[in-house]
């Protein structure tokens, strides 16, 4: 999807578990959720690449519905995010990100299983790369994808956060 010129991109900071979180939305929906100490810098770089004509505005009130959903998720009161998402990626990436929503809350699947579900069994690396490019952590649940042997594998928010999210979902 190509951005309209001179649109606004709203952002806010929050905390999920003990992890700093940056949430960013356009008028169409949440387009970025990043975690960790470098999340603010990462989202600015992401925005320059994907939405260069947008103006960045910090607006905690505008993002309140999103922060409330993330808080409900953290409490175990929300198992599926309902607010709109605004994806920016290739058609293949978007198909992978959409498929991530089919992984049930509290469960995991491997990269290989996901590739098979997408009817692309030989594209495990491409699926893995698309998952790694997912700009909307947690709401697009890439943390539910693990290695074929059950091991935790890369996560933009860090393996500590991935383990914490899987544990939170297991306890709920």
UniProtKB/TrEMBL annotation:
EC number: 2.1.1.63
Segments crossing the lipid bilayer: none
One MF term in the entry's GO annotations: methylated-DNA-[protein]-cysteine S-methyltransferase activity
Catalyzed reactions: a 6-O-methyl-2'-deoxyguanosine in DNA + L-cysteinyl-[protein] = S-methyl-L-cysteinyl-[protein] + a 2'-deoxyguanosine in DNA; a 4-O-methyl-thymidine in DNA + L-cysteinyl-[protein] = a thymidine in DNA + S-methyl-L-cysteinyl-[protein]
Keyword Repressor among record annotations: no
Superkingdom of the source species: Bacteria
Family classification: Belongs to the MGMT family.
Name of this chain's protein: methylated-DNA--[protein]-cysteine S-methyltransferase
């Amino acid at each position: 999807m190509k951005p309209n010129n001179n649109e606004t991109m709203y952002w806010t900071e929050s905390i999920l578990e003990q992890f700093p979180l940056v949430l960013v939305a356009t008028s169409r929906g949440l387009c970025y959720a990043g975690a960790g100490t470098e999340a603010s810098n990462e989202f600015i770089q992401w925005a320059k690449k994907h939405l260069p004509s947008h103006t960045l505005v910090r607006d905690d009130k505008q993002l309140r519905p999103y922060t409330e959903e993330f808080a409900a998720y953290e409490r175990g009161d929300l198992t599926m995010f309902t607010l709109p998402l605004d994806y920016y990626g290739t058609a293949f990436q978007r198909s992978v990100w959409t498929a991530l929503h089919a992984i049930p809350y509290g469960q995991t699947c491997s990269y290989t299983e996901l590739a098979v579900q997408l009817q692309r069994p030989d594209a495990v690396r491409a699926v893995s790369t698309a998952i790694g490019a997912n700009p909307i952590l947690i709401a697009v649940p890439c943390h539910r994808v693990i290695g074929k042997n059950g091991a935790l594998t890369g996560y933009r928010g860090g393996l500590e956060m991935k383990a914490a999210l899987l544990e939170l979902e297991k306890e709920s």
